[in-house]
């Protein structure tokens, strides 16, 4: 029994040793497989991250190519070309590393047949974008036809490259997930074997071992997931940091090259200045803490003014206009913005931005000078027009007096002699003379009406503008035998200010008289339209027309003075007058009068 026990014990010991060896072997195998899988997963994570980054880099190349070919971007060409060159190199190296492997990037040189097939499809698009970007980098003029053609090549190949790269990334992810599934299957098999051994050994060895293995596996999986998450977060953080650094450097370079600014301490000592500031004021050495007032001006009053502004507003900020006289050049005027800020803890500084308004100020002074000159010229012109109006009134009064004396006076004298020569004893001759007296009386009445027609009609005062214009057109049509008509197309019947009505009447009267006197018109149409805010009167004639640009408003001959009076009257009532005419095609005069 003892022997059996010894044999059993020996046998059991062997079984225990075998069981423990199997367990140890399974644990070792599990550890080896897990370690190998972790290494593979690290490589897979790197490959997936780099493959994903390829999409970002291709979009970055496209963006920088667009910026390079944009007109007006010459100040940033070098920076964009440097950035495009760096992006292009990283993109190319990563693309080759994904296909051929890279020790420096920890990328294995083994790809599946499916991934190799996808790379064979994407390579033509990659080569096209890579060659087109090289053409952009070597171009002397990034906005010429060749560069635009290269840009179009990049734009045409970017979309298919992104689609195929998405498929490659998905394939890498799919293969990584497959590895995880295989590991899980293997883990189940090893766990089953371990459980069988533990079942054979019962609770003495396998139960604690199983718990330890399960705990260890769970910890390994958790650690793996944490490691993957940390790797992704680290890549994202590094990428964001690199992007922010690049944007900060680009912004700083752009500010230095384009913005007219200077940065000082609270005492006015220059710490940094932009290129436009250095180009204009040419400070000798900014590292020796030159004072701002000494750099921008050589005149003491200007220096004292700037020092006073800095002392009074270094904590609150200020914006206004200053003058400065550089050592080399004339006085300049600037709009200055004083902005205090805290760069570091207890490190207060001032950002001072200048806008050169010298040309604007000079233009403003020139406008004031021209305005004064124009005002004086306008006063002189008004005096001249007033003098001509008075002279014209005197001539009109003399003409009326001459017409009354030469026409109506002679006809009245003839009427008197005819009356005195009537002999009632000779009825036949008396009847002939009476008939002649009737005709002569009609001529006298017509002459009086013609002589007095230019005076203010009572219809204008009693009934308004439209009845007065209707009477004017009718009377002139009867007196001259011409076809003169008024068309009130919108039935305008409002009363206007008396000055507006009389001036509008006189302008219309002058336009009709000019058409009769100078244009030889046979048909004259006066059209009236109105809206809520505007009254419009058109005077159209079929006369010989003229060139409006050839009319000298200062010349009294040929109706020029009449046009002057028409413009002056229209300006007086805040209206507008337009003349449209061509030789041989008649004339249209448009009056636009505002209705309050």
UniProtKB/TrEMBL annotation:
Membrane topology: Multi-pass membrane protein
One matching Pfam family: HisKA_3
Broadest EC class assigned to this enzyme: transferase
PROSITE patterns: HIS_KIN (PS50109), PAC (PS50113)
EC number: 2.7.13.3
Residues spanning the membrane: 15-34, 188-207
Gene3D superfamilies in the cross-refs: 1.20.5.1930, Histidine kinase-like ATPase, C-terminal domain, PAS domain
Compartments it resides in: Cytoplasm; Membrane
Enzymatic reactions: ATP + protein L-histidine = ADP + protein N-phospho-L-histidine
Keyword annotations from UniProtKB, A to Z: 4Fe-4S, ATP-binding, Cytoplasm, Iron, Iron-sulfur, Kinase, Membrane, Metal-binding, Nucleotide-binding, Phosphoprotein, Transferase, Transmembrane, Transmembrane helix, Two-component regulatory system
Cofactor(s) it depends on: [4Fe-4S] cluster
Histidine kinase domain residues: 506-596
Domain PAC: 318-369
Function summary: Member of the two-component regulatory system NreB/NreC involved in the control of dissimilatory nitrate/nitrite reduction in response to oxygen. NreB functions as a direct oxygen sensor histidine kinase which is autophosphorylated, in the absence of oxygen, probably at the conserved histidine residue, and transfers its phosphate group probably to a conserved aspartate residue of NreC. NreB/NreC activates the expression of the nitrate (narGHJI) and nitrite (nir) reductase operons, as well as the putative nitrate transporter gene narT.
Name of the protein in question: Oxygen sensor histidine kinase NreB
């Amino acid at each position: 029994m003892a022997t059996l026990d010894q044999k059993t014990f020996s046998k059991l010991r062997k079984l225990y040793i075998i069981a423990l060896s199997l367990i140890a072997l399974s644990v070792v195998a599990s550890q080896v497989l897990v370690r190998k899988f972790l290494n593979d997963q690290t490589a897979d994570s790197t490959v997936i991250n780099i493959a994903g980054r390829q999409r970002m880099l291709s979009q970055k190349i496209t963006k920088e190519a667009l910026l390079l070919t944009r007109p007006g971007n010459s100040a940033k060409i070098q920076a964009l070309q440097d950035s495009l060159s760096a992006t292009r190199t990283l993109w190319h190296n990563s693309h080759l590393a994904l296909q051929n492997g890279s020790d420096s990037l920890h990328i294995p040189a083994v790809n599946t047949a499916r991934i190799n097939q996808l790379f064979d499809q994407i390579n033509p698009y990659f080569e096209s974008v890579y060659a087109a970007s090289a053409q952009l980098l070597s171009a002397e003029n990034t906005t010429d036809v060749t560069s635009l053609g290269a840009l179009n090549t990049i734009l045409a190949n970017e979309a298919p490259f992104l689609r195929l790269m998405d498929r490659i990334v998905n394939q890498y992810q799919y293969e990584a997930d497959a590895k995880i599934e295989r590991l899980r299957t293997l883990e189940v098999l090893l766990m089953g074997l371990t459980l069988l051994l533990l079942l054979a050994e019962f609770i003495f060895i396998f139960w604690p071992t199983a718990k330890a293995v399960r705990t260890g596996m769970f910890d390994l999986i958790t650690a793996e997931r944490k490691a993957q998450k940390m790797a992704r977060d680290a890549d994202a953080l590094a990428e964001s940091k690199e992007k922010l650094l690049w944007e900060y450097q680009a912004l700083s370079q752009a500010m230095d090259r384009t913005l007219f600014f200077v940065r000082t301490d609270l005492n006015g000592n220059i710490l940094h200045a932009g290129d436009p500031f250095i180009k204009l004021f040419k400070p000798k050495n900014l590292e020796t803490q030159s004072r701002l007032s000494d750099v921008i001006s050589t005149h003491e009053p200007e220096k004292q003014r700037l020092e006073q502004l800095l002392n009074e507003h270094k904590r609150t900020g200020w914006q206004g206009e200053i003058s400065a006289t550089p050592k080399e050049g004339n006085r300049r005027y600037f709009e200055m913005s004083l902005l205090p800020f805290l760069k570091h803890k207890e490190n207060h500084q001032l950002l001072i931005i200048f806008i050169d308004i010298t040309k604007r100020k000079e233009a403003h002074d020139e406008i004031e000078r021209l305005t004064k000159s124009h005002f004086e010229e306008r006063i002189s012109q008004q005096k001249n027009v007033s003098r001509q109006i008075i002279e014209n009134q005197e001539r009109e009064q003399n003409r009326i007096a001459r017409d009354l004396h030469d026409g109506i006076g002679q006809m009245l004298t003839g009427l008197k002699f005819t009356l005195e020569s009537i002999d009632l004893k000779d009825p036949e001759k008396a009847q002939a003379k009476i008939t002649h007296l009737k005709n002569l009386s009609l001529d006298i009445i017509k002459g009086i009406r013609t002589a007095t027609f230019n005076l203010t009609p009572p219809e204008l005062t009693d009934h308004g503008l439209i009845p007065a214009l209707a009477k004017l057109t009718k009377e002139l049509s009867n007196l001259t035998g011409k076809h003169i008509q008024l068309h009130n197309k919108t039935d305008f019947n409002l009363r206007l200010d008396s000055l507006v009505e009389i001036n509008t009447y006189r302008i219309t009267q002058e336009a009709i008289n000019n058409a009769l006197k100078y244009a030889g018109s046979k048909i004259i149409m006066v059209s009236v339209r109105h809206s809520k805010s505007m009254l419009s009167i058109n005077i159209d004639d079929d006369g010989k027309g003229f060139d409006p640009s050839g009319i000298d408003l200062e010349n009294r001959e040929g109706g020029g003075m009449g046009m002057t009076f028409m413009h002056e009257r229209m300006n007086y009532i805040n209206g507008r007058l337009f003349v449209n005419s061509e030789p041989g095609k008649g004339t249209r005069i448009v009056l636009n009068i505002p209705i309050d």
